[in-house]
Fold each of these.
Amino acid sequence: MEASQREFAEKQAIEISNMLKSLIETAADAIIIIDEHGIIESFNTSAESIFGYTSNDVVGKNVSCLMPDTIANEHDDFLNHYLNTGQGNIIGIGREVQARRKTGELFPAYISVGETKAGQHTKFTGILRDLTLTKERERETQEVSRQLQHMQKLESIGQLAGGIAHDFNNILAAIIGYAKLQSDALLAVGTDNQLVEKILDSANRAATLTQQLLNFSRKGETIFRPVDVNHCVNEAVALLEQSIHKNVTIKLQLADTLPLINADDTQLIQMFLNLGINAADAMPEGGQLTLQTALFVIETANLAHYPQLELGTYIHVTIRDTGAGMSTDVLNQIYEPFFTTKAFGKGTGLGLSVVYGIITEHHATITVDSTEGAGTLFNLYFPISTSPLEHNVQKEIQPNAKTIGNDQIDGITLLIVDDEQPLRELLETVFSRYACNLLFATNGEEAVTLYMQHHSSIDLIIMDIQMPVMGGYDAYQQIQIVNPTVPVIFMSGYTDEDQSEILYSLDNVTFIQKPYDLDALLNSVRQMLLH
């Protein structure tokens, strides 16, 4: 009886031992058992996979072979100290450490060590998990979070910039308008108008600056049409060759054929030009500027390397220079309006801000890699649409379109809607010359009321979009109930993307950007009266 019980116990012990060995061998984590002298006694399959050693390679060797040199040299002292004092900083406590593979590569790991007494001897069991992929994912998450925070910051700055540009454009519209009237009056009586022309020149340069702010804030006009990116790059390079120093050589590596994308070609050329000028300025002693285009596909296999992108096909544009490069602090600020590292008077600090605005407007992506002393690389990714390309038509009347006589304007009735008194007074001065009947409103609500009262006599509405109480577009929708075909000229210091798309889709509607040219406004009125 005792013999059979003993046999049963031995059999059970063997089964438990085999089960434990199986658990150790099949565990996902590395399990390493060492003796009190640090000699490896057991090295499971996962340990082999993680470290690159076979069990035969390391069993019988000191565990320090799995550690960086800085720790390995002190490991035996740590072990002896623990055995003598019972004090240690790893036993029973999980912690992150650096471990070393057979190749010598160091990698992050999480390890916990347990102690087991076997008679007079002590065994230590270490359970180790490779954190390489975990750390990579953490870095990717942190990078995406950093980029998101940066985008939110730029979005806030963009909203502020758009509001400032809107206010400046209202002021500039009055300055340019009155200066133009004064210039024409001086010419009419044969008086020199050079001083007024200087005012106009300065005001127009200020208008260009506000337009750059609008481009950054995505409140400028964007005319989408099917565009060849290679053509835009070539156009920008032709301009660059005329403007940058001759000691900078330009190298083009363009794909033979690329699909068209839905874009504003003028903005793309401006963007490539800005990036090219910025690169050339970083090479005052000369260097090479390389522009390259290619088709680029993001698939599941490479998606993790491009956290900013989604699955799909892109046109990839790279702009590389061999210049001075940028520090991390500079890189974190390059897209902010008015930030510049150039000498005073050498730049506005809006070039890359405009680039960022254009990229965002086109739902594209931009990344930058730069090392001080080793140049800078900008990567631009333009998504290729799977749907048919759209082509919205610009309705704005150009300033030089002077084909229709003044008789179209004489004696008409206009409803002028603008919350800016100087602009209402300016338009009153302009249209009074044509004996027009004028009605004025300071916001959309007043405009609706006036139109309801005088709709039978009003020939045309000139209306601002951004106004207090009620905006221009909301007023237009209410006015349309009375007269769906009423001709309207919208004006604004800026419009958002949704409004622009709606305006360009409407019949009997056109749009003029503030500050506007008076000749363009008059010709727009004439054109609208012909509809």
Amino acid sequence: MVKRSRRVELKAGETGDNVAIPIPVVDRGRGGLRNSVGVIVGRDLNDMYRIAVKSDV
């Protein structure tokens, strides 16, 4: 039997990491993407991230 971990440990993102930003259902069209891809460009003391995307989102 395969042992499965019950808890996933997430590490804090670092500058330069790629992230997927979920787009809510009400904000996308029928054929719209579920996620937008961005890059972390900064993080403040409260762990709030500044994310850059290529398009106007």
